[in-house]
Design a protein that fits this description.
heterodimer, A: mainly alpha, 9 helices, 0% strand, B: mainly alpha, Arc Repressor Mutant, subunit A, globular
Chain lengths: 238, 123
């Protein structure tokens, strides 16, 4: 029944912004919201040609619209889809690792990197069980997160591990992984199918405690070790 | 000290009554989406960012308080007209006395605050 009107790029971007902010809505609600807003834009543009900016400004902030839709959905008792392995958790865990990795260029912080490897492993596990990505997307992300690092390590070793080459390799490695994370974030999409109960708070706290304790222990261990080491060195000097 | 945030208070007030305002606008005749939103904007206090009304309209459709029908327009794309269902009309009729009572009660209290109460002034 509806003719699809020509829709300007700015309008398309606006609709994508709403859709992204509303990604936790059940899929049919999401589609409904898109259809309603697209219809509004088409009709308003037919009434006031050339005033796209004003039309979009009157529609308001995409996040506010999405928040209203989520509230309506929650009030009508529909389960809001959250799903295991929320994108935010996955990205946060990988980001912790990345921060540790970048910090490890500083002296005396090799242990920090070792600690954040735990965060990386937790990130991989969360990504694995997450329902926000397809299997193909997960494999692609894991490949880009792991393989370039291995390859660059090989290059680094082949070059003899000189400092400038090593730094270049590590930087390239980090950039590739960050790019993979950005890609992953943009590809996220709310799981379809029946909603399920969110993970209880105490389970979440316990799950987060594991990497945090590991990081703290690793840092603590490194500090102790370096003190012991310097103590021994000074003691051995006559 | 508590400061009233006008924007926030108005938006809280609006949240509760907006759906009945939408139903009221449909009482006399069907209207299409942008028309409905312009009418709301014209009232002043009910003006809101227009996009947030669509989730509400979607709920009214789901609850079958309104129905929609596509109609061709002489200019531009076809428009979806919203009209009241009998259930919508009933909901509106039930809300009218509730609102009258509510508004009276609030008026009474707010007005009492404005003029000095003789009972409280005597020691």
């Amino acid at each position: 029944m509806r003719r699809t009107a020509y829709r300007p790029e700015a309008a398309r971007r606006y609709l994508v912004a709403v859709d992204r902010a509303a990604s936790a809505l059940p899929p049919d609600r999401r589609a409904e919201l898109q259809a309603d807003l697209a219809e509004h834009i088409d009709v308003a543009l037919a009434e006031r040609p050339g005033e796209l900016d004003a039309v979009l400004a009157e529609l308001g902030d995409p996040r506010e619209i999405a928040a209203t839709a989520l509230r309506e959905s929650a009030e009508s008792g529909e389960p809001v889809l959250r799903g295991r392995g929320s994108p935010r958790t996955v990205i946060a865990l990988f980001a912790v690792h990345e921060a540790g990795f970048l910090l490890s260029c500083l002296p005396m912080s090799g242990a920090v990197e070792q600690g954040t490897v735990i965060a990386f492993v937790c990130g991989l596990v969360t990504l694995c069980i997450s329902r926000w990505w397809t299997a193909a997307q997960k494999w692609t992300a894991v490949a880009w997160l792991l393989l370039p690092g291995v390859a660059l390590q090989g290059v680094d070793t082949a070059l003899g591990g000189g400092t400038p080459a090593s730094i270049a390799c590590r930087t390239a490695d980090a950039i590739i992984r960050i790019a993979a994370l950005v890609w992953l974030w943009h590809r996220r999409s709310a799981p379809t199918g029946p909603g399920y109960a969110p993970i209880p708070r105490w389970v979440k706290i316990a799950l987060w405690a594991v990497p945090i304790v590991c990081v703290v222990l690793a840092i603590g261990g490194a500090v102790m070790y370096s003190r012991l080491d310097s103590g021994l060195t000074t003691a051995s000097v006559p | 000290m508590h400061r009233m945030e006008p924007g926030k208070t108005v938006s809280q007030l609006r949240k509760g009554v907006l759906e009945y305002c939408v139903l009221s606008l449909l009482r006399d005749r069907p209207r299409f989406g942008t028309e409905l939103l312009n009418e709301l904007a014209d009232t002043g206090a009910l003006a809101t960012s227009q996009g947030t009304v669509y989730p509400l309209l979607a709920r009214l459709r789901r609850e079958e308080l309104v129905t929609t029908e596509w109609q061709e327009s002489p200019s531009g794309p076809p428009r979806r007209y919203y009209s009241l269902t009998p259930a919508g009309r009933t909901a509106l009729a039930e809300f009218a006395p509730v609102w009258a009572e509510f508004a009276d009660a609030v008026d009474l209290l707010i007005a009492a605050d404005r003029r000095p109460s003789p009972a409280r002034r005597t020691p």
